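Workshop exercise sheet. Pairs work together: one partner reads the sequence aloud, the other fills in the structure field after running the prediction. Swap roles for the next sheet.
Pair: D.N. / O.F.
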Amino acid sequence: VPKSASVATFKSVLGYGKWTWLSSTILIFNAHTDKWIVSAILGLKVFGYYSIGVSVLNQLKTIFTSSVSWIFPKISSGKLSDKEKASMHLKLTLFASLIGLVTSFVLVKIDFFFLMWLGKETFENSKLFLHLFLFLLPVWLISSASFYYLLGLGIVKKKFYADLFVFLTKITVTFVALLKLDYERWPILFVIPIMIELLLFTVLVHQKSKLKLLYVALFVLFNLLVLTLRFNNIL
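Structure field:
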């Protein structure tokens, strides 16, 4: 029995590692493919300014997502009840997104940080991309807790397929926006793959943890409303 158990454990770990690696590979492509497309279609000059906005978004996303990573060992231990997991998920989701919202507001309203870093000319040329990606930051952070829940619950195979679908959606949105739409503020359309990721991650976690979906849905609507108001210069 111990030998069989050890073989089963080895296969489980091997499978987990394989799907996690595949998912990580997709995430790497997801983080860079849009920049390759922008470079090819719009040229290196626009690519440079676009890359500044993307880099700021990705770095902030990484920092704030990591701030909730401590939940991973608690989830993977299997010691939390469904009620506890659902409650913790909601709290971490609110925390990550709200801190992202505050940071986004501050960085958009106060240009000092970017002027110091980039200089006046580079900042003015990249300002549009910077602001659009900062608008998207709080919405993207809503899936932060779900990311670690998927890993902790061992739902890595389904996560890979979710990541792949989001990646393909992002590529499609980028091509359509650049080739079919004559719209300067096109990066705001990345809200589409972000919302798809949020939906897929939430559904997958809910299947194992019975999340408080009504509260999550209301918070998503709140963030989308804030995004819309900011995008239209009302906030």
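Discussion prompt: Residues 67 and 96 are 8 Å apart (CA to CA). What would you look at next?
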